[in-house]
Amino acid sequence: MKNVLKWGALLVVLGFGAMLSTKIPALGLAEAGFCGRCHAMDVQVSTYLEGIHAQDANCGDCHDPHGLVTGSLFATYTGMRDVYRVVTNTTPVEIRATNLSREVLQDNCLRCHADVLGYIGDTREDGGWHCFDCHRDVVHIK
User: Fold this and answer.
1) How far apart are CA 106 and CA 131, in angstroms?
2) Which of the 8 DSSP states describes residue 67?
3) Whose CA is closest to 32, among 59, 50, 10, 7?
4) Which pLDDT score, from 0 to 100, does residue 65 have?
5) How confident is the model at residue 83 (pLDDT cuts 50, 70, 90)?
């Protein structure tokens, strides 16, 4: 029983370490070069590379929470989901943000553009829209 607990603990530590590795910038796991390896993301990556955000932000800056643990968990979950969809050929024809992803995107808009949004506040309050409902073409040009 002790060996099972030791191996279990080791697997948990290794798994947690692997999960946290998604936030190591040198690995480039949040960069367009990595995200674009999947043919399902061709349009998203190419349009991002043509937009203004490509100069200062990578995919993870907009699509992942910025906390070390929360960002790692989210990136691991969404990455594994995407790999599963590619392997099982169940990738949707039109890739849309989930409700959780929509909140992450909005929080990152607010984080980077706090100077402008300080004047108008969080646009989703009182049933309002998310920033990208109007500004989607700024990042992913059609």
Assistant:
1) 6
2) S
3) 59
4) 93
5) confident
Residue 59 near residue 30 (C-beta atoms within 8 A): yes
| Domains annotated on the chain, with CATH | 2-139 (1.10.3820.10)
Instruction: Specify the residue for token string 């049933």.
Output: 127
Q: Tell me, what DSSP letter sits at residue 23?
A: G
DSSP string across 76-108:
HHHHHHHHHHHHTT---SS----HHHHHHHHHH
- Contact call for residues 64 and 30 (beta carbons, < 8 A): yes
Q: Identify whether the C-beta of residue 64 lies closer than 8 Å to the C-beta of residue 104.
A: yes
Average pLDDT over residues 96-117: 88
- Measure CA 70 to chain center: 11
Show contacts of 73-82: CB within 8 Å, 24+ apart.
73/19, 74/104, 75/22, 75/23, 75/29, 75/30, 76/19, 76/22, 79/22, 79/29, 82/38, 82/40
Are the beta carbons of 64 and 74 closer than 8 angstroms?
yes
| C-alpha closest to that of 82 among 98, 66, 69 | 98
